[in-house]
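re: that chain from earlier
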Amino acid sequence: MVEKTAVIKNMAGIHVRPSGVIIGTVKDYPGSIAVEANGFRLQLNSVMGLLSLGLVQNDKVTLKVEGPGEETYIDTLVELFERKYDFPKRS
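^ sequence. v structure.
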């Protein structure tokens, strides 16, 4: 198992659209991914679960990955959580 910390950089935090990107990326990972933030811990496997953490800009998130290629995969997760998502505005 490997562990790293990420800091949320997106101004709007991790809302529905970034959550969808994150879950869409990790859904087929054959190992386990745990996320800890704001005193809660969960397995990263659903948008609703991720949203329940209420992640806002500058929150720290601890990511734990166990499984194939975990050392490389955790870097992908850190990038996803620290990304500044720039979605086009809805009209």
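The helical segments are 16-26, 47-51, 70-82.
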